[in-house]
Amino acid sequence: MKIGFIGLGNMGGPMAANLAKAGHEVTGFDMAPVEIDGVALAASGAEAAAGKDVVVTMLPNGQILRAVANEIVPAMDKGAAFVDCSTVDVESARAVAEQATAAGLLPVDAPVSGGVGGASGGTLTFMAGGSADAFAKADPLFDIMGQKAVHCGDSGAGQAAKICNNMILGITMIGTCEAFALADKLGLDRQKMFDVVSTSSGYSWTMNAYCPAPGVGPASPADNDYQPGFAAELMLKDLRLSQQAAEAADADTPMGQAATDLYKQFVENEGGLGMDFSAMLPRFEKRGRS
Ligand code: NAD
């Protein structure tokens, strides 16, 4: 297939490289100077998108996605798939899908889980929203870039799944860090705490697979001075998206709001910027009840 790929950053770069490695003809574009194995570079987004079977975007946010869509939708061939893998607000995903559909394109919102390691290893999970035809056209590419793709429903459903998942992730990480900090104050050994909780009803991905306590559980960013991994500011971005969606849909998400407030405080005032999102644990260690 002829593929256009716009946004060749930490995630998009290795994803595009995997498509090229699998034998597809990939033309990429990024605002910043980049070099990606096997990927030809175009001078603009429109040039990368013109005449392709599928165009993939992997961009920072919904505002940028809308601007890029305005540029590439008119340049794309009718019947081509427009697959946006960025994490953006549901409204932007739906607006771009509407614009693309009106132009005769097949839009899919397909945010991912799995981080930079998943992007380079080709083991991402895709959660997709769009028509059955659009999903069918994108699915062979999901197979190359990832290990699983779930067709969640119509346009916006992929972003809805992503922000609900990450709201759980943010809330659970805070709960896990709070519990470790409390265990410390109660004199409970962290390894014993892990041994019990990881096989009891308090188990979770944040405890079992991404433990925020250094030296406990499988290797995680906690064992690397909390270098990301998944940066606290990206967690904050996703929590803000879930709260924005909750507001628009009139859903009651008090725990999501509390997690957003804590990550905002952590990133903006407590040194969390640039740290992994599990660095909430040293943040709780430093604080007593106030
Ligand atoms: P990144 O900042 O490394 O990459 C984004 C790229 O988009 C940059 O290279 C930037 O130059 C480019 N860009 C910005 N505006 C552009 C434009 N108008 N035209 C062309 N290129 C443009 O970010 P990333 O870590 O690759 O994340 C991309 C998306 O994936 C985000 O929405 C993020 O939330 C999501 N995501 C990231 C992770 C992760 O662990 N990094 C995990 C899951 C999802």
TrEMBL record:
Query: What name does this protein carry?
Result: 3-hydroxyisobutyrate dehydrogenase
List the keywords (alphabetical).
Branched-chain amino acid catabolism, NAD, Oxidoreductase
- Report if keyword Transferase is assigned: no
Originating species: Aliiroseovarius halocynthiae
**Family to which the UniProt record says this protein belongs:** Belongs to the HIBADH-related family.
- PROSITE patterns named in the record: 3_HYDROXYISOBUT_DH (PS00895)
Q: Which Gene3D superfamilies match?
A: N-(1-d-carboxylethyl)-l-norvaline Dehydrogenase, domain 2, NAD(P)-binding Rossmann-like Domain
Where in the numbering of this chain does the 6-phosphogluconate dehydrogenase NADP-binding domain appear?
Answer: 2-153
Record's catalysed reaction(s): 3-hydroxy-2-methylpropanoate + NAD(+) = 2-methyl-3-oxopropanoate + NADH + H(+)
